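Below is a filled-in request sheet from our internal design queue. Each sheet records the structural input a requester submitted and the sequence that came back. We keep these sheets so that new team members can see what a complete request looks like end to end.

REQUESTER: design group, bay 2
PRIORITY: normal
MODE: inverse folding
CHAIN LENGTH: 199
BACKBONE (tokenized):
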């Protein structure tokens, strides 16, 4: 484990490539590498969850090694019953992380809609709530919607994908896919200004 920790990415890649070249198994090299990378990702996740059986829920360590603060692109899908089609909502969101808690606020949107998120990170699992104030002049006339979401963080820590849940206009529980992708580490007003009204 110490040797693995000391290796840089290129040395690790060369070691794995040499291993797959020497392996006399009737499996494609690409398939073997995909299985290996998936196994490593699961192992990394299990490190954060292995203590869950012995510790109280409040004492489970939050495995967020990298700081997720910065600018992210939020994209979610929803079905509009009134228009009978699948639509996508997009916002640039600034995340500010403190420990395992993340506060997200959208940048000014061309339609005037605003999105806020409160998330908790535990290992590769991101759980939280969302609130959206829809565009004042849009189809939903400035209505406010809210709900829950749960996402899985990719091994690179640069993408989250999962599902949202929330009430619709007729108090029916709706759900859909949600993806959040890292864009930039920018947090200052000056660095974020180019993204204002971009969507």
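RETURNED SEQUENCE:
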């Amino acid at each position: 484990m110490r040797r693995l920790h000391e290796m840089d990415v290129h040395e690790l890649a060369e070691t794995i490539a040499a291993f797959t070249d020497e392996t006399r198994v009737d499996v494609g090299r690409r398939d073997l590498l995909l299985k290996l990378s998936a196994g490593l990702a699961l192992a990394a996740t299990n490190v954060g969850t292995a203590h869950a059986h012995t510790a109280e829920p409040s004492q489970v360590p939050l495995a967020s090694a990298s700081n997720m603060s910065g600018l992210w692109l939020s994209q979610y899908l929803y079905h509009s019953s009134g228009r009978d089609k699948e639509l996508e909502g997009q916002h640039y969101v600034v995340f500010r992380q403190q420990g395992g808690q993340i506060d997200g606020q959208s940048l000014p949107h061309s339609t005037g809609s605003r999105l806020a998120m409160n998330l908790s990170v535990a290992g590769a699992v991101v759980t939280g709530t969302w609130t959206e104030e829809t565009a004042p002049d849009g189809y939903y006339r400035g209505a406010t919607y809210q709900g829950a979401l749960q996402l899985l963080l990719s091994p690179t820590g640069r993408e989250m994908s999962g599902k949202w849940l929330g009430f619709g206009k007729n108090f029916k529980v709706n759900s859909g896919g949600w993806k959040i992708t890292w864009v930039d580490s920018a947090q200052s007003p000056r660095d974020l200004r180019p993204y204002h009204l971009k969507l």
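SHEET NOTES:
- The CA atoms of residues 27 and 188 lie 49 Å apart.
- The first helix runs from residue 2 to 6.
FILED BY: M.R.
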